[in-house]
Every structure is written in structure tokens, then in C-alpha cells.
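Input record (one chain):
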Amino acid sequence: MIADAQFNRATLDCMTTLRRHLKRSLGVTVHLGDPDAVESMIGLSRDCPNADIRDLGNRLADMVAPVVPEPEESMVAQGAIAARQYHVNAQRQRDMPAEPTPASPSGSVRIYRGQVIR
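The corresponding structure, as predicted from the sequence alone:
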């Protein structure tokens, strides 16, 4: 499932373009509202013999890849102020309660004026 922070206009354009290419070349219809649409499009594009589709799939995979936080050692080399800010932010994130996850993912996702509506 794609995170809301990673979902923007560029991601939607890439998804739409990849969906069209997959339908044209493989005859596979992927519905963007499906919860596993992104994963299925990336999987189909990896197995496709067409280089353009593989490139679109790789670009989409890069767009939705989770952001990896910087390791703590690299923040120490940034300076004392940056290291302290990093430690304070890390402490805040540990202290925050985890958000409850829904029992089941929502069935459809709609986009209205650039906003994701579930």
C-alpha cells in the first residue's frame, strides 16, 4: 500500500502512464483504486520485455519506496546543533504513541482535487 506522504501528482501520473502501457502491451487491466494496484503494476513491469515499461515500473518503485532515515553516525558529523536536533526529534518519535491501524484496508481510494479520499 502506498503511503499518503508518497502519493502526489507525479506518482499518479506515473501510475496512469504505466497502467496505459501495461494495458496496451500485455492486455492487463489494473484498477488504480485497488489496494494492491501499485505492487501489481511494479511486478508486471519487471516481467515485461518492453524496456519503456520496465523503466516506468522502476521509476514508480523509486517514488513509493519508503524513506530510510539517516543513520545516527552521519548526523554526528553534521555538527553539534544538527546532532542535538536529530536526537530531540528521535526522542519525540519514540515518545509518541503509535497510531492504531485499521482492521482491514479501505476498499477504494478516490482522488478529489488532488487529495486522497478514503
